Amino acid sequence: MQLPEEHLDGYTGILADACATGRRLSRDERALLRDRGERAAEAGLGLRAVVRAQLALARTVVPELPRAAAADLLATVEEAVDALAEGHERAQRLAVRQQEAARREFIDDLLYGRSDLGRVAERAERFGLLLSQSHAVAVAQGAEPYDDGYPVTRGIETSLLTRFGDRHILLTTKDGRVICIAPGDRGEVLRFFAKQAYAAMDGGQVAIGRAHPGAGGVVHSYEEALNALELAARMDLDDPVLLAADLLVYPVLTRDRQAMADLVRSVLGPLKAARGGARPLLDTLTAYFDTGCVSAEAARRLSLSVRAMTYRLDRIRKLTGADPSDPVHRYTLQTAVIGARLLDWPEQEL
Fold this sequence. Notes:
With 350 residues, the protein is of the alpha+beta class. The chain has 15 helices and six strands. It has helices at residues 11-21, 27-42, 47-61, 67-70, 73-112, 117-124, 151-164, 187-200, 214-235, 249-254, 257-268, 279-290, 295-301, 306-320, 327-343, and strands at residues 134-141, 170-174, 177-183, 205-208, 212-213, 241-243. Strands 1, 2, 3, 4, 5 and 6 form a six-stranded mixed beta sheet that branches. Strand 2 (170-174) and strand 3 (177-183) form a beta hairpin. Helix 1 (11-21) crosses helix 5. The longest helix has 40 residues, at 73-112. The radius of gyration is 33 Å and the shape is elongated. It starts with 10 loop residues before the first helix and ends in a 7-residue tail after the last helix.
């Protein structure tokens, strides 16, 4: 590869003068070579090609040097290459930091919708996304926060790229969570991501939002996934993978928060009169409904005897006037129990 003259000009003179006097390269000469290394990197010239050209020029100096000075050439060339490589690497690191900053800015704009969606769509192609398609977002949350450079994140990304290549898939991190954005018709990508993230994080939880069109669709799907993780924490849902589509009933139930609060107060409020307060009886109802209204299994989960479980259910019936075993009453009670979990009652007053 033929390098432009600007990257080579004066190099032989520097070598010849240093070897003739047996001195080391001066501070100005090293600065000049570092600057040339930077400019070569900015011009897209690889370090290997630049060093090869410099070595070729060094060979042309040998015949012109006195025999005693020729022995110093190797040490001088080593200094020169070191300065050149330092400048080249510095420019590369700066380019990487600029690329990382641009990528992070794009991720923030994409996930939070803080920029013009048309501009976001234009920038998206640079990062492998075609926002004219529908996209879905999966969010993985572990016991500790993760960043882009963490081994866990890199391992998940390597697995994805090995399996699917980089076909319009974006892996990133945000607020300590690992995020995967994929085309809406590539559900297998997000399922594979969920499996890899769960294994790499040694547990944790992954939520997958529904597919939505356009740049705004990515924000919508991301928010659905975050809401699913928040809902799982409130409802004690321990499923490793949460699908936002399967949890739509909960946002519907809390859409009218005041109506739900009224239901919880009117149906479950009398439980506060029980010895020990409402919490033990509320946990009893939760276990009872979570086990499909099987008293023996609910008692086992609560570490109670079946007799104690029966007593608690009877106490609930007497306090609320609603029988958990009665299909007519069951729906109202179960809806109120879900509302209590969503609204953090009785810990939070309604």
